Amino acid sequence: MSAKDLYHEAIKSLAAADTGHGRLEAPDGRATLDNPLCGDRVEMEAQLAQGRVAALAHRVKGCLLCRAAASVIGKRAPGASAEEIERLTADLTDMLERQRPPPAGWEELSAFAPVHAHRSRYGCVLLPFKALLAALRAARS
Questions:
Q1: Do the beta carbons of residue 58 and residue 131 sit within 8 Å?
Q2: Is the confidence at residue 3, as pLDDT, over 80?
Q3: CATH number, residue 64
Q4: Residue 31's domain spans which residues?
Q5: What is the total count of domains within the chain?
Q6: Angle, vertex CA 38, rays to CA 37 and CA 40, nearest 5
Q7: Is 49:109 a contact under the CB 8 Å cutoff?
Q8: pLDDT tens digits for range 45-78
Q9: According to a count of CB atoms within 10 Å of the terminal CB, is the N or C end of the chain lower?
């Protein structure tokens, strides 16, 4: 599989949308995670209301896959609980490893189906989700 197959138009479009990019004025939780294999860095901020994501913002220095995944989070994570994001992250991992369908309500994640053939790129897709989980943990503590 070529880089052209991996970085197709849907991935490019998600990355370009950059939904959720920026900073929150007063986040409840913040986390920064790095992928030492490729140098991607994700900074994620979250505000909670009644145990759910009320607002989030991210800043990504990384590849198209990482930026596209963060953009999906920016679009779909508001309203979700930490437990739902944990399940989603597990389902996304399963999707990448076993070619399962994307989690319900997160259909944009189907754009990452070609990543299945590139195990070394799983971390690029998962890093924003792990950063969100870390920010949510920080908000709850």
A1: yes
A2: no
A3: 3.90.1010.10
A4: 3-140
A5: 1
A6: 120
A7: no
A8: 999 999 999 999 999 999 999 999 999 999 999 9
A9: C
